[in-house]
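Quick one: structure for this chain?
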Amino acid sequence: MSADALNWFTLDPSRAPIVSTLFPTDGTGDPGKAINPILTSSDFAGLDISGVRSRYSGSAGGTGFDLAWAQDANGNSVELPSADYIRIDVLSGRTQIDAVSVVPEPSICTLGFLGFCLFCRRLKKKMISRGQAVPCRCPLCGDPNNCQLCGAGAHKGPCWCASVTFPESLLARIPLQLRNRACICQRCVTAFWREQANNRPKKMGSANFYFDETGLMVFTAAYHLRRGYCCGNNCRHCPYRN
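Got it. Here's what it folds into:
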């Protein structure tokens, strides 16, 4: 990165993510819109393409990098307020980059609102960790459980949990003082079944992708065939290899 094309700085490789992991690019999204940085691979478990796009919320995905990671040739952190020039070095193998875009820094008001939301979320999680049940929060992770019975809106139809199986081994993970007082969230249910699946021989869970034992998203051969060409990234199920 450089502000003048003369003095160059490298982004700390220990903090910079690997390109083409999270988040795979979506050509229908907006490359200038940042994806929610708190999302992890577990948030996409069991989702099809439409489900992934709903998580992206209009973003084109991609791998995010921060100027705050800038360092000089000696590995010392430097303050780089802005950069007008970038240089991409491929140290080994090869990579494919669809686009590079600048994501504006959030305003002070936005940061303040996000900070307030994180504070409230942490406070509710702390209440749960102390054994205090919060009806709208999952008793396992403390995240919203999206239960229709404790929502502010009018009840319309069955809750999402009506079509989900909650095995006894999952319910047993709830602390005794929180049982029958709050619903488990869908994310914890999905994570449980994924954990169970990881203990069995791997099967393709989607026509487009699945998650391996390390949590990485792996595209299927069917997805690559629909894509129509080889990206050159040595994908695990590439159908175009000789």
